[in-house]
Amino acid sequence: MKQQQKITNLGVLTLAIVLITACNNKKKSQEIEPVKEAQQSTKALEGATYNDDVNFMKNYIELIELSDASNQSKVAVSAALQGRVMTSSADGKSGRSYGWINRELFESEEIQEHINVYGGEERFWLGPEGGQYSIFFEKGSEFTLDDWYTPKLIDLEPFEVKNVSATSATFTKKASLKNYSGFQFDMEIEREVAILSKDDIQKELGLQSLSENLKTVAYQTTNTLINIGKKDWKKDSGLLSIWLLGMFNHSPNTTIVIPYVQGDDAALGKVVNDTYFGKVPADRLVVKENAIFFKGDGEYRSKIGLTPMRAKDIAGSYDSANGILTIVKYNKPKNVTDYVNSMWEIQEEPFSGDVINAYNDGAPEPGAKPLGPFYELETSSPALALKAEESGTHIQTTYHIEGDETTLNPLVKELFGVSINDIKTAFN
Questions:
Q1: CA 313 to chain centre
Q2: Which of 146, 223, 410, 416 has a CA between 20 and 30 Å from the CA of residue 291?
Q3: Smallest Cα–Cα separation from 330: which of 271, 384, 279, 398?
Q4: Residue 212: exposed, middle, or buried by beta-carbon count in 10 A (0-12, 13-18, 19+)?
Q5: Whole-angstrom Cα distance, residue 140 to residue 129?
């Protein structure tokens, strides 16, 4: 069998970037089988096709490939990486590959101590990352990189394949995790990845029509967490959230666009949290009347977040040079404000976290190597206070739509409340 069962999940960008420079003490896995020698460069290929990336990854992991009836929309999924969507295409095997793939790490045959960052455009994760209810720090440890470890469940352990069809694949996993406060979560995870047809895309986005001139691919993941233990999950002992993170190929012409709920700061709080890695410079983050604009150029490490009071159910990006519109939608529940807080500290408000995040990669310090680079879009479920045998579900749909500006502009206006020109000139 290939390296499928040992390869791991990519770390959350909140910290993974720093780990690359901090963790030179990589460990070579004693369990992994020898990997085939790669036939391609260790560096990510600019303009790589879907077929390029799929053929490369098949040297290391087994992939499940989903296609729509037209055979033009394609999605590649890995059970070894927790049912992760590795990449997709809107134009068959020769179409553009949308997921960022860390070829260098695939080729290295090494397992890193704290996290293994293989890439992929939607991965399953769990929160919180930091705080007294963290699942990344052991009880009594310090909130530092030296003590930060990605749980093996979402890093090194494969999910089981429950069923597969031409258009969907379902994965399951039973596991236990103990948080910083010592509470043990006994859980079962079920994750379904389903490719959507063009008619499905039109319906899911609520559009009157979708031009035949547009190339499209979309997939919906349904992620369910079940409390299979005897104890209820309560706020005073900590809660979990379902956390979905996607890594996409950056470009100097890519801008992240996030509509937000307008209103007074006193009632809704600030529009955006832009201090994850230090305040984001004004030439990289602009808040306008209808939307937030954030650069996805892979040239400056920065991250932003929106609380449930400010977030809508949509975020996205637009690459003006290549005519690529990426859309992420999720099932945001109404009137729910408890989201886990992932700050690296003992927290006064452990359930005041963000629901939408966006990350732009770059060097963690002058002269250092970036993790990718790439950019990332993330969504989270609410904090899940599940009684025994209860479940919670987080659904996310990712769309890639390619076309000319004239054809895409009405769609962008309808979904984001801004024009393509607004996006292109946001930083002027």
A1: 15
A2: 223
A3: 398
A4: exposed
A5: 15
